[in-house]
Amino acid sequence: MIDRSYIHVTAGKGGRGAIAFRREKFVPRGGPSGGDGGNGGSVIVRADEGLNTLNSLRFKRIFKADSGQLGGGSNKSGRDGADIFIEVPPGTQIFEMLNDEDGSQFLGDLTDHGQELVVASGGIGGRGNARFVTSVKREPLLAEDGEEGEARKLRLDLKLIADIGIVGLPNAGKSSLITALSNARPKIADYPFTTLEPNLGVVEHRLKTLVAVDVPGLIEGAHEGLGLGHEFLRHLERTRLLVHVIDGSEGEPGKRFSLINSELSQYGTDLSGKPQIIVVNKVDVPEVELLEDEIATELRDTPGVAGEILFISAVALSGLDTLKDRMFGELDRLPAVKITYDEEEERSDGVRVLRPLDKKPEMVPAIRVQNGFVITHPRAVRLANGSDLDNWKTQIQMRERLKTFGVNDALLKLGIASGDTVSLGEWDFEWE
Asked: Which of 237, 289, 295, 378 has the most CB atoms at less than 10 Å from its CB?
């Protein structure tokens, strides 16, 4: 089972705006007619209830959306780039991998079928020269280049969405229990670590249903990476109730209960704080049936044990109706897990679209370097990249734009002097 994946996503770049003029025979003073570039496509992660693993991302790890098309003459806008969708199972959390000490930043959590998260927004298309006409500037020669699309490295973590988690030591009978309770058909054998990955099953009882997940058996030190269960403990985080299965034929039930609870509490999300139903399995074994009272007494004296202790046999299907009644009854009393988001919107079709709140860095118009100055104002750079600055008329219009952007004031604060070299995109000029 693939429940963690790393992918690279890159949104499409916006198309460049066009520089064009109308020159039809019967259109006097036609004027500028350069259209805007199209917007770049976005990369969107979407939850699909038909999936239950991240196996589809095992071999494809790079996703890139289409770029917007160039603007055209006659005020024709370029075509927008197509969005691309990455399908994942409900319960997938998305993190952006960072280079600093924090390691990763949480972006969103997809829990409902059809829910979407925009993980990389497409760049905005550049404006054509028709957008720069003013009452005094009748012949603009400037056009913008499109914005670059966002690029991110992401980590996707799948946390299965289940109502109940089944936990216990290896060979306690968890897989046999989920088989007896539900439609799940995991591999079952008479040796530890038969279960190598979580198994989901739907339990039906008295016209009600719930989802249960059986995770591989835990051993002492699981929270530190020993055994198999530590890899899958995250799948218990969304459950509301735990069924704690104890092998009645192994002896020391209190010690076995405390060992599992210790591993749950040390995992880091206080799984031991979840309500538990204590189930002693293998009551079909004669020794367990004879020692039922002693086992119950020892468990009741164990710290953390609360409520009625149930004795069942997953193999003989004994006591399962009582267990189901208890499971559904406990869930009816427990609140549903609520997940909130920094920002979300609901489309007309009812699908929730999540958009992470980006903390945009403070815009710096210009910086000083060893050989002069570099203009870093984003709109100024886009104008420079979208215009023909070899034309002296364009240069004059560009210098006027730099004043309106506040670039001139920023350069003066940095101590620029006449004759200093200034770089703007691929254009270098002397400050006057």
From this structure: 295
Q: List the structure tokens of 75.
A: 């005020």
Please state, as a whole number, how many other Cβ atoms lie within 10 Å of the Cβ of residue 21.
15
The CATH class for the domain spanning 1-158 reads: mainly beta
Tell me the CATH class for 164-333: alpha beta
Cβ neighbors of 356 (< 8 A, separation 6 or more) are: 107, 108, 117, 118, 119, 342, 343
Same CATH topology for 164-333 and 366-430: the answer is: no
Tokens of 365: 């118009």
> Yes or no: is domain 366-430 CATH 3.40.50.10490?
no
What string of pLDDT tens digits covers the 432 residues of the chain? 577 899 999 999 999 999 999 877 776 677 899 999 999 999 999 999 888 888 889 889 999 999 999 999 889 999 999 999 999 999 898 999 987 555 788 888 898 888 999 999 999 999 999 999 887 888 899 999 999 999 999 999 888 888 999 988 888 888 889 999 987 675 554 545 455 577 888 899 988 999 898 887 666 554 455 444 556 777 888 899 999 999 998 889 999 899 888 888 877 666 778 899 999 999 999 988 999 999 999 999 999 888 899 999 999 999 999 999 999 999 999 887 655 444 445 544 555 565 555 555 677 899 999 889 999 999 999 999 999 998 999 999 999 999 999 999 999 999 989 899 999 988 899 888
185 burial (CB, 10 Å; 0-12 / 13-18 / 19+) is exposed
Amino acid making up residue 421: T
